[in-house]
Write a structure and sequence with these properties.
The complex is a heterodimer of chains A (116) and B (113). By secondary structure, chain A is mostly beta strands. Chain A contains no helices and 12 strands. In chain A, the strands form 3 sheets. In chain A, strands 2, 5, 6, 10, 11 and 12 form a 6-stranded mixed sheet that branches. A 4-stranded antiparallel sheet of chain A has the order 3-9-8-7, with no helix packed on it. A two-stranded antiparallel sheet of chain A has the order 1-4. The termini of chain A are far apart. The mean pLDDT of chain B is 92. By secondary structure, chain B is mainly β. In chain B, 0% of the residues lie in helices and 54% in strands. The chains are: A mainly beta (116), B mainly beta (113). At the A-B interface, strand 6 and strand 11 of A face strand 4, strand 5, strand 9 and strand 10 of B.
Chain lengths: 116, 113
């Protein structure tokens, strides 16, 4: 069975500083990997996704993520965070692009706190 | 991006009653919709997958007689929590498959007293 681990329950970063959120997955085949952000009262918003090709993926809001097969990781990064980035971040794995007909398996999330 | 709405956004009900939650894809047709449940400080857990016009497929451990799912059209799926109990209190989120990715609704907070 597939699984996703986000080791950090919460992370505090100063505004303007760089950010890296960790994600490790367990999946037998080639994974489809996603990062979502959840803000209070908002639905989950897709930041970026990886399914093949270049292992460094660019997303919205200045985020990027790098797929490392040898480490089973898909860490999310941003060079300079803004106060508006404070939210809950979820890494997810699917059996097909976009989840398809199979649904997604989510990590437990990382709560990002931005210090002024 | 595509928009998915949920109604109601929050609901409080008495133990033993049934509650219906609607999930609508507003600007796209979703042949497949998913229902997730999110516990506090926990990840989203897939409950079931529903395909328009057919019976939903439930994940292991999810009671299909308690969580009734109907996907009658390409833009509407409903989740009915039957004979709700306090342990059913949770945040329920739906998503629609839009051809390239899943688009998520804002969620419904259910509190069973």
């Amino acid at each position: 069975a597939q699984s996703v681990t986000q080791p950090d329950i919460h992370i505090t970063v100063s505004e303007g500083a760089s950010l890296e959120l960790r994600c490790n997955y367990s999946y037998g085949a080639t994974p489809y990997l996603f990062w979502y952000v959840q803000s209070p009262g908002q639905g989950l918003q897709l930041l970026l996704k990886y399914f093949s090709g270049d292992t460094l993926v660019q997303g919205i809001k200045g985020f990027e993520a790098e797929f490392k097969r040898s480490q089973s990781s898909f860490n999310l990064r941003k060079p300079s965070v803004h106060w508006s980035d404070a939210a809950e971040y979820f890494c997810a794995v699917g059996q097909s692009l976009g989840g398809g007909a199979d649904g997604l398996t989510f990590g437990k999330g990382t709560h990002l706190i931005i210090q002024p | 991006g595509a928009v998915v709405s949920q109604h109601p956004s929050r609901v409080i009900c008495k133990s033993g009653t049934s509650v219906k939650i609607e999930c609508r894809s507003l600007d796209f047709q979703a042949t497949t919709m998913f229902w997730y449940r999110q516990f506090p400080k926990k990840s989203l857990m897939l409950m079931a997958t529903s395909n328009e016009g057919s019976k939903a497929t439930y994940e292991q451990g999810v009671e299909k007689d308690k969580f009734l799912i109907n996907h009658a059209s390409l833009t509407l799926s409903t989740l009915t929590v039957t004979s709700a109990h306090p342990e059913d209190s949770s945040f329920y989120i739906c998503s629609g498959w839009g051809g390239e990715t899943q688009y998520f609704g804002p969620g419904t907070r259910l509190l069973v007293l």
